[in-house]
């Protein structure tokens, strides 16, 4: 099975969630490992592994089964390493290339299923309203 694990970035999500909003982190769980993407200042992969549903610094909200893969653990690891080469930590962007974009990329390739739209809705709204945002969020990835 392939799961999307979703985490809250703020306690305000408890209220915003009911309106289809919220600021979330996500990772993809397969074969007992969760893969996610995060920022750092180096031109090396920002993809990391964590114990499923226990990503440090975030509050676990829910796990959503998106499908199944026929890849074995070793084949999956090679697949993730290949995809990870396109997700360097210094290319992370809150609106254009965040953890939820990575999760959607992985799930679309693995099970041909997008992540639920509410998970990354705030980034999409932010991109549409980017002219009102601080300059640091308007830069391209």
UniProtKB/TrEMBL annotation:
A Pfam match: Peptidase_C97
Residue ranges of domain PPPDE in the record: 1-137
UniProt xrefs under InterPro entries: PPPDE_dom (IPR008580), PPPDE_sf (IPR042266)
GO biological process, one term: proteolysis
Keywords (A to Z) from UniProt: Hydrolase, Protease
Keyword Hydrolase: yes
Endpoints of the signal sequence: none
GO molecular function: deubiquitinase activity
Keyword Hydrolase: yes
PANTHER family, sorted: DESUMOYLATING ISOPEPTIDASE, IP06716P-RELATED
Family affiliation: Belongs to the DeSI family.
Record-given protein name: PPPDE domain-containing protein
Organism: Selaginella moellendorffii (Spikemoss)
Lineage of source species: Eukaryota, Viridiplantae, Streptophyta, Embryophyta, Tracheophyta
